[in-house]
Amino acid sequence: MCTYHGHIQTPADAIKLFEACRLGLLPRVQRWLSEEEKKSIKSGSVYVWDEQEARLRRWRDGRTWSSRRVSGGFRIYQEIDGESKRG
């Protein structure tokens, strides 16, 4: 279910990722993640989805995230202490 695993450094990298998804070369998230899929999220996991297609407006994985900060055209979130709301 993960679209890509790695580091995205520039907006151009992100655009390439989006284009690969648009062309069907990389998978897009098309539904809420299962509990098993949520457990597999790790640093570097990238998930791409179309809000209308997947009916996903906000990312929900049961983890605690910092407030967003903007850096070079990206919204950056950090997981807080690896804590989980699930348990």
From TrEMBL:
Pfam families the UniProt entry points to: Gti1_Pac2
One Gene Ontology molecular-function label: DNA binding
Protein name (Swiss-Prot/TrEMBL): cAMP-independent regulatory protein pac2
UniProt organism field: Oidiodendron maius (strain Zn)
